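Key idea: predict the complex, not the pieces.
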Amino acid sequence: MSSSSIALRELQRDLENKANDLSKLQKDIAKNHQVRKKYTIQLGENELVLKELDLLKEDANVYKLIGPVLVKQDLAEANANVRKRIEYISAELKRLDGSLQDLEEKQHSKREAILKVQQRIQSHQAGKAKA
Amino acid sequence: MGKPEVKGTVTSLSSVFPPEEMQKAAKMVEGKLSEKQNEMNQLKEFIADNTSLINLVQKLPDELHHDIMVPFGKAAFFPGRLIHTNEFLVLLGESYYADRTAKQTVEILKRRGKSLMSKVDALKAEMQDLKAEASFFDSTASEVADDLVEIREYEEDNSTERVSQSGPVELESPSVAEADNKVSASEDDEYARLMSRLEELEKEELAAEDEDANANATETETDSDEDELTEAAFHRKKVEGYSSLDHNQRYLVSQPRKQLQQSKGKDPMNEEMSTTYNHQDLTNQLACTGLTAEPVTKGNYGGEISRGRIVHQDTKMLNPPVNASVPSEKTSLKQIIHDSSRNEKPVQTPKSEFDSSKAFTGSIIEHTENLEKKLPEQKTTSSQSSDSKPSKPVSRFKMQRK
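Result:
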């Protein structure tokens, strides 16, 4: 009986660990979602800027705000910069998507493991009750 | 007529939709809805700011320079002048600025305004969806509270009907499913009346069945739909179903009706009948027994009409203490309707629309004065359903429905 209660305690500890892991995973997933949202908004804004830049005439003045300084920029240069940024953001988004999928899979498997441990605990307790 | 074999299941709605969960779901939906509302308010503010900015930008170039009070620091101003009134440094986004004239600035601002409007529209659509969800949850929650039970019957020909009854008390579910067997005399008068009606109808239906054999209806909408139907949805479906049914189907649907009324009206009639019947039946039933019937998808109607058995079942259903109303039981409903005085039926002129070969032949009616009233109703479809609402003792149903 003591051995079974020890086993029971072990199982419960195992369950706790797994539950902690699961909550960590969930936090990661939530963070991932947030970052994704931010990036998506930035992507939208950059595309808007690109559209406006395209509407500008060649000799129009474009400035970029870097900290407290407004720096004059070349239209072509600004265009290139914005396009590069858009590419960078899309790549980041894809990467995040991949890692999100990963995390979700891990979460899924963790949940299943937890279920299994719970079942074992239940069977243990049932066994103990009988005995 | 032999009773068709009926196998069915009765599930209490509260088991399918446990009340606490329903409430939780309803709250979640409400929360989301309020979030969306906040976003919507914010967007509206942006739009308002944008328009006032456009106005300002348009007014500035009217003068060469403006005398203004220039803000200085956090809490001071000094008099100054605004010059170069046609040059604007516009933020394009992501810390990029551009020099533009007033006209060009206004164009930029207008484009921004358009994108804001489209966002607002998208939000509105989302909110509508959420509202629909919320209303569905509310109605199911109230149904669960009333202890409605979902009864599914499977006829031999695989038509399924879904009927929900309220049995605050006891729905003896098994008994309900086997209503046929049970026909307890409790509801007696109605039952007797219904039985006789049903038999008559069945005979007629069987005769008509041959004709309609092909028309089988789309029963597709069915089960899944049923699950989701809310009363509002039900109405919609009815309307859709009606409109989509082709004549055959409608004819089938109307069959039961016809039989009740003994008129051979066509589709419009059917639809109306069914809708009105449903309403009426429900109301009647409610009046009598306080039952509420759940809407049935139209699809079922189409498929089932041809079955006289349905009628049978309907009656049977009616009889049980529970008094479930079966959708297909339109026929039974009709009977009920006949039995009870239905003045509500708004009705319509049955003949005018269809008629062609099926116009009423005058032979209709007569079971009760009510029948006559019914005939006229056949015409309109959805309108009727709404019409049927008028003040009737059944209003109970209506109220629930609504």
